[in-house]
Amino acid sequence: MRYKIAVLPGDGIGIEIVPEAVKALEAIASRFGHQFEFTEALVGGAAYDAVGHPLPEETLALCKSSDAVLLGAIGGPEYDELPVHLRPEVGALLPLRKRLALFANLRPCILFPGLLQASTIKEEVIKGVDIMVIRELTGGLYFGNKSREKTPQGGETATDVLSYSTLEIERIVRLAYEVAGKRRKQLCSVDKANVLESSRLWRETVSRLEKEYPQVKTTHMYVDNCSMQLIRDPRQFDVIVTENMFGDILTDEASMLTGSIGMLPSASIGGEVGLYEPSHGSAPDIAGQNKANPLATILSAAMMLRYSFNLDQEAELIEKAVNKALEEGYRTGDLLACSDSEQPVKLLGTKEMGDIIAQKILQL
Ligand code: NAD
């Protein structure tokens, strides 16, 4: 089979980690006889520097005409002072999600056995963690109207509007029920219904849809409690569904259950073309040093195979290759920080980790 993949490395470590995911996909292509046609385009700060806008029309057109999009990360301190519509996240990432109609972001938070000791959390708490966080991606506070007004006293008032419609909630919750139905059949809906009106509508909608999915056990949890429960007893969770900002924050927290934010992949789906990217940002503090962990991006490529191309066996092979490399003690720096494993650890750079994974894909 032939698949067209738009490749958007972006900024910072994006340009280092994306080639490693491409390498893994090339190994899959050679092993299974698929053809992946990669076309690269600019996005984020790199696009702003080249053509004056973080999401050029050309890039958007390429994404729309591809079968899937592989994205690295965007942003960096040098772009923080740009007018808001030209900043990489607001000017590129959010419109890209919106214009590709990617309303659902799936973030599997799985602890690979080889990384049991890499987390800052006790082994007995995290052993066997396997959570799917489903985050609403095109609504809520990040997409609401934003404004600033001068106040008569001389200061300013800044406003961000948080709104959700029944339709927006229904489509993400239905998707979450379907995912939960194929897993351990438990859905935890996270909101702040004790304070926010949008959360009250969220909870009412989930309670109404719950009746259509009797095989799935539904629970509701306030977001502040959820952030605590994720650390106290993460294994209580199977699928979590939540709104945009809560999902953004909770998944960074959940990444620490897996050892590092460099381990957390993501799939954004819902439209015709899926977008696959690591959950982390452009990590300017380590950019250009061959230190970034490419595994979240490589695992995002596995999600692309599974969700956009229905290539389950190929996706599993990438996941197996990652697990094998970790079991054999291969680590990037972020996974070393808390490791007191007795197993000898082999410290690798971004490129070398990518090479090991590609090698394992060909050998396993
Ligand atoms: P970040 O995720 O880039 O980095 C947070 C910390 O995690 C840093 O210490 C970084 O070194 C580390 N880290 C992240 N990914 C890593 C990896 N693969 N391997 C090893 N260590 C890794 O978050 P930040 O520092 O808050 O943001 C930096 C920039 O990224 C900002 O401009 C922000 O707007 C942008 N950002 C982009 C995205 C995206 O492209 N989807 C998401 C979040 C932040």
Structural class assignment: alpha/beta
Mean pLDDT: 95
CATH class of the largest domain: Alpha Beta
Helices, by number, come to: 12
Characterization of this structure:
The protein is α/β, with parallel strands linked by helices and 364 residues long. It has two domains: 1-107 and 261-364, Isopropylmalate Dehydrogenase (3-Layer(aba) Sandwich), CATH 3.40.718; 130-256, 3-Layer(aba) Sandwich (Isopropylmalate Dehydrogenase), CATH 3.40.718.10. The protein has twelve helices and 14 strands. The protein has helices at residues 14-32, 45-51, 57-64, 88-99, 123-126, 166-181, 197-210, 223-232, 244-255, 295-307, 312-327, 350-363; strands at residues 2-10, 35-40, 68-73, 104-110, 130-136, 146-150, 156-160, 186-191, 217-222, 239-242, 265-269, 274-278, 330-331, 346-347. The strands form three sheets. Strands 2-1-3-12-11-4-5-10-8-9 form a ten-stranded mixed β-sheet, with helices on both faces. It has a two-stranded antiparallel sheet with strand order 6-7. Strand 1, helix 1 and strand 2 (35-40) form a beta-alpha-beta unit. It is globular. It starts with a strand and ends with a helix. The mean pLDDT is 95. It binds nicotinamide-adenine-dinucleotide. Nicotinamide-adenine-dinucleotide (NAD) binds at residues 13, 73-76, 89, 93, 261-262, 277, 280-286, 292-293, 296, 334.
